[in-house]
Specification:
Layout lengths: L5 E8 L18 H13 L8 E8 L9 H11 L5 E4 L2 H4 L3 H15 L2 E4 L4 E2 L10 H30 L12 E3 L7 E3 L4 H12 L4 H10 L5 H9 L8 H5 L5 H8 L8 E3 L2 E3 L7 E3 L6 E3 L9 H13 L4 E3 L12 E3 L7 E5 L2 E8 L15 E3 H51 L1 H9 L5 H30 L2 H12 L9 H7 E6 L5 E5 L4 H5 L3
Parallel strand pairs: 1-2, 1-3, 3-4, 13-17
Antiparallel strand pairs: 4-5, 6-7, 8-11, 9-10, 12-14, 14-15, 15-16, 17-18
Helix pairs in contact: 4-5, 5-14, 7-10, 12-14, 12-15, 13-14
């Protein structure tokens, strides 16, 4: 029992709390020291908290739009293990800015785990309102925090696009062969350590050497790879590498090819190589070369334009021996199958003479010189057969369970959700007059009033749509749905196991060196999928 009496003080600051131009903190009230001082003052003024063993969790430089933060995950793991009794934050926005996820933790997860939650500036203590959810004011604040964070992301993106158009280098780490100037954050300068090796790559290509041969030469000379250089000199860690793997990475033909094809080497600044999939998202999508923002003559070139163009012509003339899957031609498993050891996404390839014999392999395994990530591959037809069998087994279980329980369970769950949605809808509607009164009384600016009004209207529309869909599902015939599902299940075969099916039900697939598969499924309802046209 004593182990549970731990009080977690959670502190967070991110780029959202810094000035867009200078990088300085916009408000001292959001600084780590200010958060720490406020929380400790609150603890001292509440004797009941003095009995807890205080432990601090700090995330410096992490956005509140995602829960994927090291200190936060460590704190949540402590809570799940039953060793955490209370969490205290300056305000809810420090815990997070995604109002749906944060609301779920405050209203569902923490009460279930027996964890007390305190937000000092929001005057909220879950112990004071057992079994109740935070009031409308706090829920509305969470909506605004989410809106504010996404609005700020748009502004940051707008500033970066202007900088890209001006030819400024806005990436976090310099390309191999260059350094970021100590006098100008947006200017590249040649790196005296690695620039000569880049020039050597171009010279060897013009001499007729293949990228794989150049990679072998660099490995013999023990030239640090880009991954090793970024880690050793700049402290950048590739998310797919363990530290041991980074230290043992080797040059490959694809790494050499990437460098000699990069216009940066000819004095051009290249931006917009990747973009976030949506505002507030942490997922990135690589852009087509035609969408790159390239500005010429922005820094010292490592090779002259003539040499660069001749090299590009040589590369283009060499026909590839293998065709690899591209984003424009997604297969059922594109982006879903990973290495079970290093976590890297597996790459698809097929021989030009046997395009139907496609397989997936771990590219990282080919870059290491020890067994930290052993070579592994699997044929696509074998993978499809296994995944299809697993899905059909899960679907049958769902059909068996739903055949007996679907009507009662579905009706009870939908009724519960409808009640919650209608309650929130009424609360939002009744909350508009006080909002307008606050604006009329001069307690908020016209801009803030319009933002809050728009956020509330957006939530109202979504709630109304959810209520309409829920009532329609509740009135549908469950028995007819089960019968139709059984007929659909018969059509699920290896030939029909395509992208829509894997997108809906498969979260990820992991392949280890023993060629065993671990398939992580999503919580999607197969009956809902079967009802789709």
């Amino acid at each position: 029992m004593e182990q549970r009496r731990v009080l977690a003080s959670y502190l967070r600051i991110s780029l959202e709390d810094r000035d867009l131009k200078s990088g300085n903190q916009k408000a001292e009230s959001n600084s780590i020291s200010a958060q720490r001082q406020l929380i400790r003052g609150y603890i001292q003024s509440h004797p009941d908290l003095g009995a807890y063993r205080l432990r601090e969790f700090l995330d410096d430089g992490y956005s509140g739009t995602t829960l994927n933060r090291p200190a936060l995950q460590e704190m949540l793991a402590l809570a799940r293990n039953g060793r955490l009794h209370c969490v205290i934050v300056k305000d809810v926005s420090r815990f997070g800015r995604n109002y749906i996820e944060i609301g779920n933790y405050i209203e569902q997860v923490f009460p279930f785990l027996g964890v007390r939650f305190i937000s000092v500036n929001d005057h909220f203590d879950s112990r004071e309102t057992p079994g109740q959810t935070p009031g409308l004011d706090m829920a509305f604040k969470n909506i605004l925090y989410d809106f504010y964070s996404k609005d700020l992301s748009k502004k940051v993106l707008s500033v970066k696009r202007m900088q890209q158009a001006e030819g400024k280098f806005v990436a976090a780490k310099p390309p191999f062969g260059y350094l970021i100037s100590p006098d100008n954050r947006y200017q590249l300068i040649p790196d005296p350590k690695t620039a000569p090796w880049v020039r050597a790559m171009f010279e060897m290509t013009l001499e007729g050497k293949l990228p794989s041969e150049i990679a072998g030469f660099l490995n013999e000379k023990k030239v640090p790879t880009p991954v090793q250089r970024n880690f050793r000199e700049f402290g950048f860690r590739d998310r797919w590498y363990r530290e041991e793997t980074m230290e043992n990475s080797r040059w490959t033909g694809s790494t050499v090819l990437k460098i000699i094809k990069d216009p940066t080497m000819s004095g051009c600044t290249v931006n917009n190589r990747v973009q976030v999939t949506s505002i507030g998202s942490r997922r990135f999508k690589r852009q087509a070369e035609t969408d790159f923002v390239i500005v010429a003559d922005t820094h010292t070139a490592l090779v002259d334009p003539d040499t660069f163009q001749k090299t590009r012509a040589i590369i283009k003339a060499r026909a590839p021996s293998r065709k690899k899957g591209r984003a424009g031609n997604e297969t059922a498993f594109s982006g879903k199958i990973f290495c079970g050891e290093c976590g890297n996404r597996l790459r698809r390839e097929s021989r030009s003479k046997q395009p139907e014999r496609a397989s997936y392999y771990c590219p990282r395994a080919r870059q290491t010189k020890n067994q930290s990530c052993a070579a592994k591959s699997i044929q696509e037809d074998v993978l499809k057969s296994i995944v299809c069998s697993v899905l059909k087994a899960q679907f049958q279980l769902a059909a068996d369970w739903n055949g007996a329980e679907f009507p009662r369970h579905r009706e009870k769950e939908l009724s519960r959700r409808l009640k919650a949605w209608k309650g929130e809808l009424n609360a939002l509607r009744s909350g508009f007059p006080p909002l307008y009164e606050a604006y009329s009384a001069g307690q908020m600016s016209h801009e803030d009033f319009l933002r809050q009004k728009a956020a509330r209207a957006d939530r109202l529309r979504r709630l109304q749509s959810e209520i309409e869909n829920g009532e329609r599902l509740l009135s549908a015939s469950s028995e007819d749905g089960i019968s139709a599902f059984q007929e659909w299940l018969e059509t699920v075969t290896e030939s029909t196991c395509g992208r829509p099916l894997t997108d809906t039900f498969v979260e990820a697939i992991y392949l280890d060196s023993r060629k065993s598969l671990r398939i992580v499924l999503k919580g999607a309802d197969p009956l809902d999928f079967a009802r789709q046209p």
